Amino acid sequence: MRDFLVAGNWKMNGSNAANAALMDGILGGVPATDQVELLVCPPFPYLAQVADMVGGSRVMLGAQNVSVHASGAFTGETAGSMLADVGCSHVIVGHSERRALYGESSDIVAEKFQAAQAVALTPILCLGETLEEREAGQTERVIDAQLDAVLETAGVAAFASAVIAYEPVWAIGTGMTATPEQAQEVHRHIRARLEAQDADIAAGIQILYGGSVKGDNAGGLFANPDIDGGLIGGASLKPADFLAIADAAAALG
Ligand code: PEP
Question: Which of 83, 138, 186, 194 could make an S-S bridge to 202, C-beta 3.0–4.6 Å?
Answer without folding.
Answer: 194
